[in-house]
Task: inverse folding
């Protein structure tokens, strides 16, 4: 009795006005924001189904983010075909991060084989036909026939067609018996073996049943881009319409239903025309457009009458429900009364379970009574409620019997007959108690049924794994035989390939080495040119200092004379500035002009002498321009200039051999040590650009031309005075 009291209390609460519940929910609702991330890669997951049971629905965007209306305590369901479903209880209004784990199934394509015997093929087809016969009658027996069908071809190599048909049938069984998750897996296995449009459409239906709405939309949209039959095109558009209706997008739902209806009408696909008119009516009714809904329901009702009795009564019930929602109770009563008459001549076994339950006499009588009660016609309602209770008792329909008994008690209470009201309420309590027990049994049976279905499914999966293993063994043996036959040919091909690769690598290395050499040569030329261009400003700067000194001492005539000689020298220098090498004779001429200018400035400091060996063939030797000038400049400015008595500068060009010339630049100046000692602080801070550049130029030349120039610097006297620079210049 305690259990009964609790149940009655719950039922009493259930009859409170729905409006107050909605208002309460609206007051407590808030917008929950979050993101769905892949657990291992931490990457966002797009197009994920996010819903609250009985509440809002949304999907994630490209960044994996979502926003949904929710309340604290609601259960958030995050679902997709690519990962395990996540159930999350909302505890607060904070940003939610949902991490999901990949649960995708790796589907291996089966090798193409065929049955070797007609008897095996016939056995397989008979077993599949038996499975389809029992599909809506006995799920366990139907699955058993599918299992036997796979076993019948187990010894032979199962073809893709066999495998596809078996798993398609298994998917049909699971979908009919409300196991959509298993149906999805089975349809996928069927498609993996042999991709067929009909099975892909069924997979879309299974996605809808399993609330994988984004997957169904994606699949149907892909199918629309492929070649479809007229009937298949209607089914795809209808599937899109069903999906959008399930997620409350009535506009897109009607749009897709209308597309399907246009194609069905064009090609006279009559059953679909009736169904689509009915579905468009439902969509309009759900979106709050009763006039449009009534128009399509009238169409569906007229079309259903032309098909068969079964279709007509199912459609009448649907249209009657529509009239009930719009409070047009007279039309509802009229339709249900006609429906009751038609049910008398209808074989109930031809109806599906859900159809038979919806249009059963006990339910129709109950709904007619409800329509009268809604109009406050209690006396008219009583006979229909009694008839409903009577029919429900015969059919053991405790659910309708409970509702009708309670409604009858309320009607008697409404007309003031409290005795009958109490009497029927006691009956109602008895039915509720009986219904409670029955529901517990049904739940237990449903759980057992689900376990048995899962076990049989696992058995088929094991058979499939075993079949794949056998296939792999057979295929491996065959491939091994081929490998043995082709082994020598492959070895020869590999050896030839290795030789060819080796040759290619050698050629590549050679050309790479050559390119590096060429690039290095080009870089050296560029460096030489850069150093050479630096020499000219340095030389000009020093010469202009000399002019400046003459002007400062008011020796204008001497300055003019110096400028005249300097301009002649500059012309020769600039003419040779673009050349990498010039004849040795030109370099000697430039050096003489430069030495003359320096002597002109420091005529009291030194005398100079040029000695050129007549054996030297001037036309055969070339030298980089301005290579010798810095050494002469160094001798004058740092050696001879600081000598107290008059110094001497000797410049000699001697023939060592036919290929080599020795150049000696010798001075009897103060020497390198004393010159370094008397440098000013400012001079110590500055580096000699001329000597630095000349050393770099010689280093690059020797790298490019195999020691073309040798340089040696030494003291002339033991007291470290005087400096001798010896350069050896090779012909090439």
Result:
């Amino acid at each position: 009795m305690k259990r009964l009291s609790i149940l009655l209390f719950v039922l009493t609460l259930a009859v409170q006005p729905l409006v107050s519940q909605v208002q309460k929910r609206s007051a407590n609702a808030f917008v929950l924001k979050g993101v769905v991330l892949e657990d291992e890669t931490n990457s966002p997951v797009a197009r994920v189904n996010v819903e609250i049971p009985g509440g809002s629905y949304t999907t994630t965007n490209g960044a994996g983010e979502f926003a949904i209306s929710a309340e604290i305590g609601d259960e958030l369901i995050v679902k997709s075909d690519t990962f395990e479903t996540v159930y999350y209880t909302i505890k607060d209004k904070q940003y939610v991060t949902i991490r999901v784990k990949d649960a995708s199934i790796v589907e291996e394509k089966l090798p193409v084989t065929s049955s070797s015997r007609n008897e095996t093929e016939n056995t397989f087809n008979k077993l599949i036909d038996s499975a389809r016969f029992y599909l809506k009658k006995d799920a366990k027996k139907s699955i058993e026939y599918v299992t036997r069908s796979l076993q019948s071809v187990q010894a032979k190599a199962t073809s893709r067609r066999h495998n596809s048909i078996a798993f398609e049938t298994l998917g049909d069984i699971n979908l009919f018996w409300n196991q959509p998750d298993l149906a999805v897996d089975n349809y996928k296995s069927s498609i993996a073996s042999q991709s067929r449009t009909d099975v892909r459409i069924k997979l879309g239906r299974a996605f809808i049943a399993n609330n994988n709405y984004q997957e169904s939309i994606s699949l149907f949209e892909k199918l629309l881009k492929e070649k479809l039959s007229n009937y298949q095109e209607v089914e795809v558009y209808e599937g899109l319409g069903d999906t959008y209706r399930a997620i409350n997008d009535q506009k897109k739902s009607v749009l897709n239903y209308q597309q399907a209806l246009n194609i069905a009408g064009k090609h006279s696909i009559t059953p679909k025309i009736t169904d689509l008119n009915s579905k468009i009516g439902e969509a309009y009714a759900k979106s709050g457009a009763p006039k449009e809904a009534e128009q399509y329901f009238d169409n569906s009702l007229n079309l259903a009458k032309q098909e068969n009795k079964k279709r007509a009564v199912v459609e009448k019930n649907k249209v009657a429900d529509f009239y009930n929602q719009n409070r047009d109770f007279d039309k509802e009563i009229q339709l249900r009364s006609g429906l009751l008459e038609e049910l008398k001549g209808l074989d109930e076994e031809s109806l599906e379970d859900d159809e038979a339950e919806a249009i059963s006499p006990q339910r129709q009588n109950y709904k007619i009574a409800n329509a009268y009660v809604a109009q406050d016609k209690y006396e008219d309602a009583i006979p229909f409620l009694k008839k409903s209770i009577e029919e429900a008792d015969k059919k053991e329909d405790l659910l309708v019997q409970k509702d009708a008994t309670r409604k009858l008690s309320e009607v008697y209470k409404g007309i003031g007959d409290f005795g009958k009201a109490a009497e029927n309420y006691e009956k109602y309590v008895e039915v509720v108690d009986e219904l409670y027990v029955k529901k517990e049994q049904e739940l237990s049976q449903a759980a057992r049924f689900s376990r048995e279905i899962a076990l049989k499914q696992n058995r088929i999966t094991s058979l499939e794994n075993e079949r794949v293993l056998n296939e792999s063994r057979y295929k491996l043996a065959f491939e091994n035989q081929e490998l043995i036959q082709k082994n020598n040919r492959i070895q020869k091909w590999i050896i030839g390939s290795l030789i060819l690769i080796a040759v290619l690598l050698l050629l590549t290395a050679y050309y790479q080495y050559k390119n590096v050499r060429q690039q290095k040569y080009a870089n050296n030329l560029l460096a030489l040119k850069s150093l050479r261009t630096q020499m000219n400003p340095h030389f000009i700067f020093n010469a202009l200092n000399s002019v400046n000194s003459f002007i400062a001492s008011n020796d204008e005539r001497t300055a003019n004379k110096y400028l005249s000689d300097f301009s002649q020298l500059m012309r020769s220098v600039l003419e040779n500035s673009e050349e990498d090498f010039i004849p040795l004779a030109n370099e000697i001429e430039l050096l003489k002009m430069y030495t003359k200018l320096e002597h002109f400035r420091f005529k009291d400091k030194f005398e100079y002498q040029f000695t050129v060996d007549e054996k030297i063939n001037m036309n055969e030797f070339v030298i980089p321009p301005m290579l010798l000038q810095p050494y002469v400049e160094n001798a004058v400015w740092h050696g001879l200039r600081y000598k107290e008595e008059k110094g001497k500068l000797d410049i000699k060009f001697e023939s060592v051999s036919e290929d080599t010339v020795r150049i000696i630049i010798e001075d009897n100046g103060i020497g390198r040590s004393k010159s370094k000692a008397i440098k000013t602080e400012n001079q110590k801070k500055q580096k000699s650009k001329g000597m630095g550049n000349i050393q770099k130029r010689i280093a690059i030349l020797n790298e490019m031309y195999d020691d073309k120039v040798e340089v040696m610097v030494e003291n002339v006297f033991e007291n470290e005075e005087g400096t001798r620079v010896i350069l050896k210049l090779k012909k090439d």
The first strand starts at residue 30 and ends at 38. The radius of gyration is 52 Å. Residues 418-552 form the longest helix (135 residues).
